[in-house]
């Protein structure tokens, strides 16, 4: 499922990636929303496993 991303945030991310590449720095960290989404997926999976263990 694709996620809507505004043009301005797309340009912001691309500019950060390009500037880091030119400076020889590692790739940028994940965005805060990516970190929140990953935490939510982990929590959902943990609850699913707990529910299956009780059954």
What descriptive keywords fit this protein?
55 residues, mainly alpha, 2 helices, 73% helix, 0% strand
General description of the model:
The chain is mainly α and 55 residues long. Helix content is 73%, strand content 0%. The radius of gyration is 17 Å and the shape is elongated.
Can I get a quick summary?
This protein is mostly helical and 55 residues long.
Number of strands: 0
- How far apart, in Å, are the first and last alpha carbons? 31 Å
C-alpha geometry:
elongated
The percent range for helix content is over 70%
Largest sheet: none
Approximate strand percentage? under 5%
Mean pLDDT: 82
Structural class: mainly alpha
The count of helical stretches stands at 2
Query: pLDDT under 50 segments (min length 5)?
Result: none
- Our Rg estimate from Cα atoms comes to 17 Å
SSE pattern, N- to C-terminal: HH
List the helices and strands and how they pair.
Layout: H1 7-23, H2 32-54
């Amino acid at each position: 499922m694709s996620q809507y991303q505004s043009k301005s945030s797309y340009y912001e991310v691309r500019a950060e990636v390009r500037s880091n590449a030119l400076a020889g720095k590692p790739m940028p960290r994940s965005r805060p929303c990516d970190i929140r989404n990953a935490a939510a997926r982990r929590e959902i999976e943990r609850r699913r496993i707990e529910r299956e263990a009780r059954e």
